[in-house]
Amino acid sequence: MGREIENILDILNFYKVLGFKELPEVFLSSLLKGEKTQNTHSKDKLDKTLTALNEEIRICKKCILSKERTQAVCGEGNANAKLMFIGEAPGVDEDRQGRPFVGEAGNLLTSLIEKMGFKRQEVYITNTVKCHPPGNRDPLEEEVSLCFDYLKREIEIISPKVIITLGKVATYTLMGMKGKIKDIAISKIRGNVFLYKNIPVIPTFHPAYLLRNRKDKWLTWEDAQEALRRLK
Ligand code: SF4
User: Looking at the 3D structure of the chain, how many domains does it have?
Assistant: First the structure.
């Protein structure tokens, strides 16, 4: 119990350092309700629930990203995964192939997963926004908020023990950050752990960033080790 209070104090301090005057609803509600995403269903049931969700995503036209996509890109991996990775949005390769994290950035993520001692199919990998933004631009706030319901449901189904967010879009979304606060660089946020529905979330760099800034790879490895410590 002592350790949990210490964790909560660390998180409160983290929000304060980031300039929050009030705590975001997503953190406050889970803290007050002691909310914990927990699934007690069989693997078969989870696979079916995930398939049904993915069917919904594939035909979704809630935002303008549906107009230019080749296809919506659903998450993939083990429905019972203990570790979940959340990226930003599908890139050009993902849009073409219909799978998250393929191409060079995908290979880098796969090698990180393997270095952590997992096979890619043992973890769960998804994106905050499921359709490719034209010109590889950042997804707009409106697109993120329209798509967030799918991510929330994925997290609920998978019920991971630890989440690693790759880059600022996934991190800000789970932290409930909006508006100007988005200007804070991911390099200022990583190295901290926060909670989403009482699941520890470890922010780190997006693999596409690491391809351009290879010197920061060791920081991502530090974040991965924090995830491993928490999984144990
Ligand atoms: S990005 Fe999300 S909300 Fe927008 S069309 Fe694709 S699946 Fe629907």
Answer: 1
DSSP bridge partners of 203? 165
Parallel, antiparallel or unpaired: strands 76-77 and 124-127? antiparallel
**63 is in which domain, residue-wise?**
24-231
Q: In this structure, what CATH number is given to the domain that contains residue 139? A: 3.40.470.10
| Residue 37 in contact with ligand 1 by CB distance below 6 A | no
State the amino acid at position 27 in one-letter form.
Answer: F
Q: For residue 204, list its beta bridge partners.
A: 166
Tens digits of pLDDT across the chain (232 residues): 455 666 677 777 777 766 676 776 666 665 655 555 556 677 788 889 999 999 999 999 999 999 999 999 999 999 999 999 999 999 999 999 999 999 999 999 999 999 999 999 999 999 999 999 999 999 999 999 999 999 999 999 999 999 999 999 999 999 887 765 667 788 989 999 999 999 999 999 999 999 999 999 999 999 999 999 999 8
Ligand 1 pocket, 70 CB below 6 A?
no
pTM of the model: 0.87
Query: Does the CB atom of residue 201 touch ligand 1 within 6 A?
Result: no
| Ligand 1 in reach of 23 Cβ (< 6 A) | no
Please tell me what DSSP assigns to residue 121. Answer: G
Report the length, in residues, of the chain.
232
**Atom number, ligand 1, closest to the C-alpha of residue 146:** 3
